Amino acid sequence: MLNSLPASEHLPVKEGVSTIRFKTLCIYLIMLVVPGYFIYKLPLHGVTYEGVKGLIWFTYFMVVTLCYKDIRTFIALLLNVKAFKKPGTYIWILITFMLPYIMLHLCLYFEVFLDKYFMFYFNNHMLHASSWRQTIDVAVLTPITEEIVFRGILLTILLRFVKPFWAVGTTSILFGLIHLSDIWMITILGGVLLTLTTYKTKSILPAMVAHSLWNLYMVQLFLYF
Fold first, then answer.
1. ∠ CA 58-61-65 to the nearest 5 degrees?
2. Are 99 and 213 in contact (CB under 8 A)?
3. How confident is the model at residue 223, as a pLDDT?
């Protein structure tokens, strides 16, 4: 499927603003990564603080992103609402949710590729839904920040320098590497599909929707289907 990507397609970023200065990009990423690490290490544990670190990170991320004019302009052009006027957009959102869903349940059924403890807890209905604060963090805030970074900035910049196959592949692999978990294969598949959804729809909004639906399923809806 990746080999069929036409090299002439680009995300809708004008040439004049699509090239973020290397210095600006480095400073922006450093300002996200370094404080982000310390936010992750904050000693906020227990029921009282559920979702607090996620909210702090999201707030900080948005402040930094909006303060940089080049980054803000760059991302704004990728928030293409017109994509939702095309039927193909909803097909991609459906595919991006359904393929990982099918793969997850096939792996659970045949007991392959997944962590044995995850399979045991899942099959015996021992996994519990997240709290509403965690759900907001995982299903709303996280998709926004991750799609801006991976499908917004990273994918768009890569498409300017390498062929679509490599841009999509690199973005997907990096996304998978920071999401190593008990269901890592499904995460990598999800990364590929989210990247393709952005590439095909020319907007990061459909990927945000698909990402949000999948995260919502993993923290809440798996109890029902």
1. 140
2. no
3. 84
Q: 27-72, pLDDT tens digit by residue?
A: 999 999 999 999 999 999 888 888 999 999 999 999 999 998 889 9
Q: Report how far Cα 25 is from the mean position of its chain's Cα atoms.
A: 19
For residues 115 and 43, what is the distance between their CA atoms, to the nearest angstrom? 28
Tokens (6 digits) for 196:
């393709």
What's the farthest any 2 CA atoms get from each other in the chain? 55
Q: Cα(203)–Cα(114) distance, rounded to whole angstroms? A: 32
Task: Read off the tokens for 225.
Answer: 């289907």
Strand, helix or coil for residue 134: helix
Question: How many CA within 13 A on the CB side of residue 33?
Answer: 8
Q: Which tokens belong to 45? A: 């544990």
3-state secondary structure at position 113? coil
The pLDDT score that the predictor gives to residue 8 is 45
Q: Check: CB of residue 139 under 8 Å from CB of residue 216.
A: yes
State which amino acid sits at residue 209.
V
Residue 84 exposed, middle or buried by CB count within 10 Å (0-12, 13-18, 19+): middle
Q: Which residue has the tokens 């670190």?
A: 53
Number of H helices, E strands in the chain: 12, 0
pLDDT < 70 positions in the chain: 1-10, 12-19
